[in-house]
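[PROTEIN RECORD]
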Amino acid sequence: MGHDSGPTDATTGDGARTGLAEGGGDGTEVFARYAHAPNALGYCGPTESAPMATLPPAAVRTMARQFSGVWPYLKVMSTLTGIDDPLDRRLVESYWLGGGIGARLDPAEFLAELLAVIGPLAGHYWAHLTPELAPEAAANHCFHVFGVYPWTRLLGRGADEHPLRVLDNCRITWGTVLDRTADRITVRASRLEWDGHRLELSAPATRQVAVWVDGYSPAPEVHANDLVALHWDRLCGLLEPEQVRDLADSTARQLRVTNDRLSRT
C-alpha cells in the first residue's frame, strides 16, 4: 500500500504524437478521447450510435453540452479564465489531467461558481455539495471523482468493492506501455486501494489493454515505452511526461485531501 507510482516513470514522450496543447485551439478531439469510454459504457452523456471520438467536431460540441459532470466545469473554467470557448484545448486538458490553466484558479472561487451551477440540480445523494468542500476543490476531473461524486462517502460501510471499483475506473490513470502484441498492449500502472481507512495507489502492476474497441483507437500506433492515459481501463491516448506529472500531482493532492476528510468521519 502507498507506493509512489508517480512521474518517475515518465521518461519518454513525443509532443508531435500526443498533441500537447500550446496556445489553445480546438479541444473537441481531446474531450472526445477522454469522454468516449464512460459514454460508450452508458455512464455519462447522451446515447450515440457511433464512437464519440469518431464524430465531427460540431457533433462532439453538441454532445459535450449534455455531459452533466464535465460540462459545468468547463463552463466555469471558461468564465473564470476569460477563455471564451469551454472546449478550448487548454481548458479540456487541464480538466482531464490536472495542472495547466485550471490549476491557477482559486479553489474557493471555483467551487462557489461550480455549486451555483450544479447545486440546484443535486438530489439527496449530493447533500455534501456545500462550501465545506472548498479544501478539496480543484478545477479538474480528479476532484469530481473523489470530492463531488458520492462514492468516497460509501466507503467503510461494509461493501467497499463497488465504490472502490468505480473510483479507480472513473479517475484518469497513467501508465507505461511495456509491449504490444497485435492489438493488445501490456501497461504498467497503479490501481486504487482502500485499507479500511485510507485511499492509496498500489505498486504499479501490469494489465492488458485493447488498442481498438468497437472499431476505434485513440492511438493506433501505440508501442512499447509510450506513456498512456486510461479511463475505465480503455485507452485515451498518449501522454507527455509533463502531463503525467500533472496527473500524478493532481491525483496525489486529491487523495491527500480526501483522506483528510475520511479520517474525520
About this structure: Residues 241-263 form the longest helix (23 residues). The chain is about 35% helix and 15% strand.
